[in-house]
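Posting this for the archive.
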Amino acid sequence: MLPKIDPTNQKACLSLLEDVTTNVKQIQDSVLEAILSRNAQTEYLRGFLNGQLDKESFKKNVPVVTYEDIRSYIDRIANGEPSDLICDRPISVLLASSGTSGGVPKLIPLTTEDLEQRKSFTSLSTLLIYKHIQGLNEGKSLMFYFVTRESETTSGLMVRTMLTSFLRSYKPTNSSFWDQTHISPLAISTCADTTQSMYCQLLCGLVDRENVARLGAAFASSFLKVIKFLEDHWPELCSNIRTGRVSDWITDAECVSGISKFLTAPNPELAGLIEQECSKTSWEAIVTRLWPKAKCIEAIVTGSMAQYVPLLEFYSGGLPVISRSYATSECFIGFNFNPLCKPCDVSYTIIPSMGYFEFLEVEKDHQESSHDLANPVVVDLVDVKVGHDYEPVLTTFSGLYRYRVGDVLRVTGFYNNAPHFRILGRQKVVLSIDMDKTSEEDLLKAVTNAKLLLEPHDLMLMDFTSRVDLTSFPGHYVLYWELGSKVKNAKLEPDPNVLEECCYTIEESLDAVYRKGRKNDKSIGPLEIKVVKPGAFDELMNLFLSRGSSVSQYKTPRSVTNEEALKILEANVVSKFLSQKTPTWELHKLYSTR
């Protein structure tokens, strides 16, 4: 495990990172030994190991599992049975993951000790950013964080998101470190009313705009939602600044108290400046126009978040977009040791002290884990090969053993002896007709190619999702697109020829099995794009938030089957376009990709 660190001692922290990325094998062996020696007598491990604690027995006898395989153990703990079913330390919280099982968030066990490890991990990753970007310590962070509704299991165990657990771990009576580094008071960030919290965080950031050194949110999509909120509410925010009085609908006591420290007097000059920028024809570079001393934007832009990069770049005004770490509810995994790289080049170096890491080999391009085969190929962290694709398998201090995460990673190199990976996407089929199985990664690549056709027309793809339509034969894929304009208040009337060409480009970008089904077998119909009204994806998000999702963790689902969600999308459709051409397919190309 990571030792306790002093985040003010940058030299010692950076030296620690060099050590843990150099002594990878020794650290991994000691981590596994520590986990097994602690937890050998848990009900779960006892059933597989029978007291054998060596690495060979662990790898031979403990199965590689998914959430569904261990769900019964977590449900039993949630219902009041002791934590030692899976872990020798008390489970202090169940984390509500952004991933789901049966339509509800997965519940991931976490101990207090592991939470402290993750806080140390976060401090170290922050230091890496400060190392690469000069002047960050001259200002503060305007990071848009939001808590979500908390619940309790029948046994009284708290159910929270990872970010909520982080924020709640800072006590209001001892928040001096937070106040020294963040613009918004902790009490505003932990307000349970997301709308009031977002409004007040923006108001704090605008009033103290000259002191903002960096901005960000957990995910790229979260940051863009803040920008959209600002676009809708800037006149009211300017009015508050002009009068020195917050709007009457801000009623949360902590928000009112927190914002009173910023709105100390009317400031018509600042209100006029912000109004001047926000009322311009285009919102391009709005971030640097409103926060001129900001040096970077921080948000996860890898995996499914990659599609938001063009929008971030449009609003950012050339600021570097930093994706600093790879962290899941199950485990905090790796750092980006080159935070100033382009978003498309982000790789994360595994920190071997955070857990025991194994990897299932994945067949490149087809995203089939070798775990699906008769003899799964599972390799240790030190044995992965550059250029190969893998799915991480985690063993943690909080009671997960050989747990499949579901991400697909590609090894891009090594930092010292620790491999670094690029996140390709989820190992998840999102669309399937006949013999075709389109993964999330394949769909994202195809949409990325197609949306390039929008740029010459000053259009931007704001968000998208998809579904399979089997109401006619043959069935076909439907994509819901929400479009935006680079020009403020411009009418969104896309050229039908452009959208039809987008349909064709997506089809051409999908794999040979799909194209064979379209052209040769005629078992798949022409792909369809349905353009929805602006705000449709906000309605979709609100549906899922009403069911317990968090704004900070919410990710637009890349395929939708939920009837309520489909009703929202269909009610907002304003135009429809079908692919007018058949994609290419040649027999020899099909087999050359296998």
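The longest helix spans residues 220-243. The chain is about 40% helix and 25% strand.
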